[in-house]
Design a protein that fits this description.
Number of strands: 7
Strand order of the largest sheet: 2-1-3-4
Largest sheet: 4 strands, antiparallel
Distance between the termini: 66 Å
Structural class: alpha+beta
Radius of gyration: 19 Å
Oligomer: single chain
Length: 167
Amino acid sequence: MTRIAILFLTLMLTACGNGPEEKPPAPLEPTSSTKGFYCGMTLAEHPGPKGQIHVAGETGPLWFSSIRDALAYLQLEGATRRVRAFHVHDMGRADWNTPQAGTWIDATQAYFVLGSRREGGMGGSEVVPFGDKAKAEAFTAGFGGRVLDYTAIRKEEMFPAKGDAGG
């Protein structure tokens, strides 16, 4: 009887679980008409890295014209919705003016340059993502800034006081 009770309890607990973990959505490529979540302008109108955040319940990703805007979304609204994936352009492989297809990386594995002199799609100092830490450090040699990993960048204030370049 005890074995039957244990088997029954195990089956019940398994049935109550969320099942196997869903695989995060793969990055998508924006079209010429894809618009930024905050600005409402097409991504193609802006230079620099872009971001896409896949949220449970949405049919497609939320698109961002700048990485700073994507990180701000996570700070301001991310706690209220379940983020399934966050992808950014790897600027160690992408062209600044028009990041090409196939250069997306998982933001949680990226290195970010904060406080550089490089302006992003929405103006102001852009947060620049890289898949390779050495390439991020090389970028800072030419444009300034500091390199942070995903955990550290999430703790940063994305909209510093006027006159503060964030670093």
